[in-house]
Design brief:
By secondary structure, this protein is α/β, with parallel strands linked by helices. Helix content is about 45%, strand content about 10%.
Length: about 240
């Protein structure tokens, strides 16, 4: 493995963490590797470094953690209207699985932040890579525990995996349902709150509209508006809680 510009004190832990994806369960930290599996993907490592630098500036009351669905609403009009003034910080990284988020947490990416609420949405890419719903839920549960360890005073707003696939009978729908059935059990009514905003994204017939999710996976601006409207009442209550 070739690692450029990585502090020597981190080298051993980076090497240990970079096991081949096939050897990792969803609950084990693991970085994103290149196609050959010989080194950490350079773009992803650069993204990790940039987010680490962002976190060390601190000051966010709300931290959003997840994959592309979270990353892609950074600085759009819905983000600016709902979250910029909180302030909130976006730590979504496109393509991330639960393994990748666990690795980022283990490497101290969020050092410097002390949020009141962490909004977590992760797991759909585990399903996309072929993990069973139970394995994807196990990985998300591990992320919840790692987040709790990192931010013991924060509330965790755990979001259900969003619906994907245009029609209600798309095979992903049942797999998503099974993941969310498990994740819902993590809600303890106090420090971890589970919320399924999926119904707000669906049409009356259970389909996903291309106006809301153009690729039936990632929200449009309208999709982000629906997400924010469905989530904000609970998010505001968590921010106001003592």
């Amino acid at each position: 493995m070739i690692l450029m510009n990585v502090p020597s004190l981190l080298l051993a832990s980076l090497l240990a963490a970079a096991a081949p994806a096939s050897a990792q369960s969803a609950a084990e930290p693991g970085p994103r590797l290149n196609a050959a599996g010989t080194e950490i993907e350079p773009y992803w490592l650069k993204k990790h470094e940039e987010l680490t630098a962002l976190a060390h500036r601190g000051g966010a009351r709300v931290v959003f953690l997840g994959d592309s669905i979270t990353e892609y609403w950074r600085d759009n009009e819905i983000w600016r209207a709902h979250y910029a003034a909180l302030p909130a910080a976006n730590f979504g990284v496109a393509g991330d699985t639960t393994q990748n988020v666990l690795w980022r947490l283990a490497q101290g990416e969020l050092g410097g932040e002390d949020p009141k609420v962490v909004v977590l949405l992760i797991g759909t890419n585990n399903l996309g890579r072929g993990d069973s719903p139970e394995e994807a839920a196990r990985g998300t549960t591990a992320v919840v525990h790692a987040t709790r360890a990192r931010f013991p005073a924060a509330k965790i707003l755990l979001l259900a995996v969003f619906p994907r696939g245009q029609r209600p009978d798309d095979p992903y729908r049942e797999r998503v349902r099974r993941v969310n059935e498990i994740l819902a059990r993590l809600d303890d009514g106090a420090t971890i709150r589970y919320l399924d905003v999926g119904p707000a994204l669906l049409e009356h017939d259970g389909s996903l509209s291309a106006d809301v999710m153009p690729d039936f996976l990632h929200p449009s601006v309208e999709g982000y508006r629906r997400w924010a409207d469905a989530m904000d009442p609970l998010l505001r209550r968590l921010l106001a809680a003592r």
